[in-house]
Design a protein that fits this description.
By secondary structure, this protein is α/β, with parallel strands linked by helices. The protein folds into two domains: 72 residues, no CATH class; 168 residues, 3-Layer(aba) Sandwich (Rossmann fold), CATH 3.40.50.300. The chain contains eleven helices and seven strands. Helix 7 links the parallel strand 5 and strand 6. Bound molecules: adenosine-5'-diphosphate and magnesium ion. Adenosine-5'-diphosphate binds next to helix 4. The site of magnesium ion has 3 residues, from helix 4.
Length: 268
């Protein structure tokens, strides 16, 4: 993807200009910042050339050949959602929906309604019957992101769905039709420790962790950094209609060796 540089004068001061300032100020020092106005698009493949990435591509293809539940672990920003989408896209369910839901930061009652749906009149704003995301994922995959944040009560409800395959919408007297959704979950938490502490159900942990995929942080696969940086800057340049500014060898070296890369490859 190549950025197009035209119409600069007409555009005046805009996010793209700030972006360019930001690219420029990042060279050759190591304090590159991406303005909050920019988002890195979710890629449709795992970019990188490290042995770890090659191994991960194999694990993803292997998971895609089965219909088993997958638990994806790794720090924030390592590409767990990219991997989950790839498992779906390469699986026999690829023509069905891929439905992501973030289990963190959503109040429990809202998460329950989001997951299971509700019937009309079951709470104040429930004006009509509504399907939850589990139902929407029928014949496709549901991606339960940040599953480690789920309350014990929600874990119990999820477990019941996993055991029976049936959904009971909030306010419904009984379970509805069976739902056929492949479950892919992800977490940046040490779930096994949570199991030992008692904050994550053992039975749910084993139900979800049939296939496990671990994505190591970027600091443990530094050879992926130049290729990721190039890809992101290229995407951002295209997004903001700017020419790709290029990267010096020195910038590559500093990013690879001097930064600590705690979690995210780039701030998003
Ligand atoms: N190896 C990778 N290949 C391609 N894109 C990646 C890779 N690692 C991270 N990203 C990008 O970084 C951002 C964060 O990735 P995401 O999958 O949401 O991480 P996580 O779910 O682990 O927090 C996304 O824009 C994603 O496209
Ligand atoms: Mg994520």
């Amino acid at each position: 993807m190549q950025g197009r540089g035209g119409n600069d004068a007409a555009r005046g001061s805009c996010a793209a200009d700030r972006a360019e300032t930001s690219y420029r100020s990042s060279f050759p020092d190591t304090t590159m910042t991406i303005p909050l106005t920019m988002t890195i698009p979710l890629t449709n493949r795992l970019i990188g050339r490290s042995a770890a990435i090659h191994g991960l591509r194999d694990e993803v293809s292997c998971a895609a050949r089965s219909d088993a539940k997958v638990l994806i672990t790794g720090e924030s920003g390592v590409g767990k959602e990219v991997a989950a989408r790839l498992v779906h896209d390469q699986s026999a369910r690829r023509n069905g929906p891929f439905v992501p839901i973030n289990c963190a930061g959503v109040p429990e009652t809202l998460l329950e309604a989001e997951l299971f749906g509700h019937v009309r009149g079951s709470f104040t704003d429930a004006y009509r019957d509504r399907a939850g995301v589990l139902e929407s994922a029928h014949r496709g995959s549901i991606f339960l992101d940040e599953i480690g944040e789920m309350s014990l009560r929600m874990q119990g409800l999820l477990l019941r769905f996993l055991e029976t395959g049936e959904i009971q919408r909030i306010g419904a007297g009984r379970a509805g039709a069976a739902v056929d959704a492949r479950v892919i979950a992800a977490t940046n938490r040490p779930l096994r420790e949570h199991v030992e502490e008692g904050s994550f159900r053992t039975d749910l942990y084993y139900r979800l962790n049939v296939l496990s995929i671990y994505l190591p942080p970027l600091r443990e696969r530094r050879s992926d950094i130049p290729i990721l940086v190039r890809r992101f800057i290229r995407d951002l340049s295209a997004q903001h209609d700017r020419p790709f500014p290029g990267l010096s060898a020195e910038a590559d070296r500093s990013r690879q060796t001097r930064l600590r890369w705690p979690a995210r490859p780039l701030a998003t």
